[in-house]
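Dear Dr. H.,

I hope your travels went smoothly. While you were away I took the liberty of generating a structure for the chain from your last submission, since the lab meeting agenda had it listed for discussion. I wanted you to have the full record in hand beforehand rather than looking at slides cold. The sequence, exactly as received, is reproduced here:
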Amino acid sequence: MSTKEFRRAARIILVGAPGVGKGTQAERLMKRYPQLSAVSSGDLLREGVRNRTPLGLEAEAFIKAGNLVPDEMILKLILDKLKANRWVSNYSSVTDPSPAQPSKNPSASFILDGFPRTATQASRLDSLIPVNLVVSLITP
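The corresponding predicted structure, in token form, is as follows:
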């Protein structure tokens, strides 16, 4: 399979039921488009808990109590990762009403895996950073 390059940054969301193949499709896309990087909300949570970060410890309390980690915490994890990679700028907090400024550089291309899970989360994410492709994976 030959690789291809983007002319501008791609911000992609893969959605679908657990086990539908989002991770597999993300891997395939990254092989085809080497500029893409995967951002997994589950991986970010596990990394935060393992590294005992303040946000990781806060998330761990929800997880140990058997609760879902609140949307705002997941959004913060994702936006912090995007900012750390310099894929967005002008982001101060998830409560800031102004959207983050995404880089147009093709090397700032990413796939979100595992978030958003609901229409509310998708709307909130879109208000913070524009997404330019959503792929819904469905299996029979």
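Two observations you may find useful: The mean pLDDT is 86. Residues 97 and 128 are 8 Å apart (CA to CA).

With kind regards,
E. W.
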